[in-house]
Amino acid sequence: MGILRFELHLPENRSLKGKRKHLLSVKSRLERRYGASVAEIGYHELWQRSLLVMVVARREAGEAMHALDEARGYLSSQEFELARADAQVLSVEEAIG
Predict the structure, then answer these.
(1) Does residue 34 sit in helix, strand or coil?
(2) Which pLDDT tens digit goes with each residue over 51-67?
(3) By CB neighbour count within 10 A (0-12 exposed, 13-18 middle, 19+ buried), where does 82 fall?
């Protein structure tokens, strides 16, 4: 299982409504591209920042890390700023115990 915690800066955004629309698009693309689950976990009240987490389940740790690295590359190539991205791979035993 791979976890990518990342912070986005949306400098051109001007409202919470705009932020929600933008994040919905980002989350949808990550979910389709990487078979991930994505959720906003912080900065809900700010309209130019967001803290999200993406989780992928893969059979092997290397496959999970590869998916996280690809997602990080994808995020850093978008119109927003990827302020921070921290990846972690857990075994199933670590994740449930």
Answers:
(1) helix
(2) 999 999 999 999 999 99
(3) middle
pLDDT band, very low/low/confident/very high, at 80 (cuts 50, 70, 90) = very high
- Counting beta carbons within 10 angstroms of the beta carbon of residue 89, is it exposed (0 to 12), middle (13 to 18) or buried (19 or more)? buried
- Whole-model pTM: value is 0.89
* Beta carbons of 36 and 67 less than 8 angstroms apart: yes
Ordered by start, the domain boundaries in the chain are 2-96
Domain 2-96 in CATH 3.30.70.1120? The answer is yes
| CA-to-CA dists, residue 21 to 24, 35, 77, 92, 93, angstroms | 5, 21, 19, 33, 36
CB atoms within 10 A of CB 93: 7
Alpha-carbon span 8 to 23, nearest angstrom = 10
Residue 69, H or E segment: helix 61-76
